[in-house]
Structures are given as C-alpha cells and as structure tokens.
Design a protein that fits this description.
The structure is a single chain. It contains three helices and no strands. It has 92 residues and is an all-alpha fold. It has one domain (2-91). The protein is elongated.
Length: 92
C-alpha cells in the first residue's frame, strides 16, 4: 500500500510541477489545452522518473516514498515540462 501512495504523490507532484512551469516560462497562451498537456506530461514524467530513481538509487529496498524516487520524479518532471514549454515558446 505504501508504494501506491508514493506513486500518487509522484502524480500530484508532477501536476504541480507542470503548473509551476507554466508560471516560470512565460508565454502567451493563444492555443487552448496547454495546461492539460502540461499536467499530463508532468504526471507521466514524474511516474517514469520516480521509477527510474527508485530502480537506480534505492536498489536494496525499493520504496516509492524514498529520496531516490522523489528526486527522480522531480528531476524528470521538471526537465520534460521545461522542454515542452521552451519548445512551444520557440515556435512562436
């Protein structure tokens, strides 16, 4: 049960990072739907990053609510949402 709670924390953290990246990287939203894409991309990247972080850094005792899982989830969610916002900003 603890691992499912950790995955839920990753998802919520990814959504929050996606919304935060919308504030950090300024861009006029002329096309609707970017907020939903950022939330989905942040959540997806946080889950993948969390799994990678747990697999690489917490090999002996893999638990989702660990330093490796949180660091991986945060790192990949920030990277993916920043790349998305930066790329969309470069298109205009």
């Amino acid at each position: 049960m603890e691992n499912w709670i950790g995955v839920a924390v990753w998802i919520v953290m990814g959504v929050a990072i996606g919304l935060g990246m919308k504030v950090v990287v300024k861009r006029p939203d002329t096309t609707p739907g970017h907020t939903r894409v950022l939330c989905a991309l942040g959540a997806f990247a946080a889950v993948i990053g969390g799994m990678l972080g747990v697999g690489i850094l917490e090999f002996d005792h893999p638990v989702a609510l660990s330093l490796g899982g949180m660091a991986g989830a945060t790192g990949l969610a920030v990277l993916m949402t920043w790349v998305y916002r930066w790329g969309i900003k470069g298109l205009t």
